[in-house]
Amino acid sequence: MSEPPTADPQTVDVRDDAEANRYEARVGGQLAGTAQYIRTPGLIAFVHTEVDPAYEGHGVGGALVRHSLDEAREQGAAVLAVCPFYAGWISRHPAYRDLLYSEQSRAADGGTR
């Protein structure tokens, strides 16, 4: 069995496969990882990230997250980090925290009459 191509963040090609509702990371043309999402107008929820064990620790997961969050920012979409990998990555990269979805009630506090 041959070794997978070496991965570093510069050689990871990340693309959105909208039909499959996932971002795909490829290294040397080989599928190295995916990030599944659910998209609604103005919101993208990242629900599961998976990196092939042969590529773990080589920046594939980080490339998936960074690319998908950069696209969310470009599209003006908020992000719901259901996936623990996304949540952890965002907590370590404060420049992306502004993308996180936070539910805010539009109703004024004060009860009903």
Automatic annotation (TrEMBL):
Domain N-acetyltransferase: 1-106, 15-101
Entry's Gene Ontology molecular function annotations: acyltransferase activity, transferring groups other than amino-acyl groups
Keyword terms of this UniProt record: Transferase
Domain of life: Bacteria
CDD domains named among the record's database cross-references: NAT_SF
Transmembrane segments: none
Identification of the protein by name: N-acetyltransferase
Protein source organism: Streptomyces albidoflavus
